[in-house]
Design goal:
With about 180 residues, the protein is mainly alpha-helical. It contains 10 helices and no strands. Helix 3 crosses helix 5.
Length: about 180
């Protein structure tokens, strides 16, 4: 690979990739730079390695076909991560497994937690179980904010909401968890 490609910023490469054909070096360099970060986001949002692999492939396919849509209004990394988040949420919803199960999981988790608490047993509950009681967007917001350390501005851009709306949604999601699991947090 020519060294000039590897030395360019993400935004410069994105501009080059938008003008390239299917075998472009710039897009290949962007994939190399972002593959680990995209996979990590997909893994956290999808919950297992197999689904994360499928989602990451879908993300890069979308990035390739939408490479001309990056307008440069934000950092390229924020745009890529937004595509990854939206892709994962779409895949989870389209598979339907979470939408059917969220209420059931929440009820089961809350019942187990109540049984443990009432019995005086170890009231520990996994964070994953707690997060599974939230809807997809709230779960994703909390994971990206606290596990991936995104700031409110980046999250707002990824989710297409204002910064104040982002702060409010994260606060409300935390409040839901605190109400459901008062002894666990």
């Amino acid at each position: 690979m020519p060294s000039h490609v590897a030395e360019q910023s993400d935004e410069e490469l994105a501009a080059l990739a938008a003008r390239e054909g299917s075998n472009g070096l710039a897009f290949g360099e962007l994939v190399r730079r972002f593959k680990d970060r995209v996979w990590r986001i997909c893994y956290r949002l999808m919950g297992n390695e197999h689904d994360a692999h499928d989602a990451a492939q879908e993300v890069f396919t979308r990035l390739f076909f939408q490479r001309h849509k990056f307008a440069g209004a934000s950092k390229y990394s924020t745009w890529v991560h937004g595509v990854a988040v939206r892709t994962c949420l779409t895949l989870r919803r389209s598979r339907g497994r979470r939408q059917r199960r969220v209420g059931e999981i929440a009820d089961e988790t809350l019942a187990r937690h109540a049984d443990r608490h009432d019995a005086g047993a170890d009231a520990s509950i996994s964070l994953a179980e707690m997060l599974d009681t939230l809807d997809e967007d709230d779960r994703a917001l909390l994971i990206l904010k606290y596990a991936e350390s995104y700031d409110y501005e980046e999250l707002a851009e990824m989710f297409g909401i204002s910064v104040s709306a982002c702060k409010m949604r994260i606060s409300r999601a935390r409040e839901k968890l605190n109400r459901r699991f008062p002894d666990a947090l």
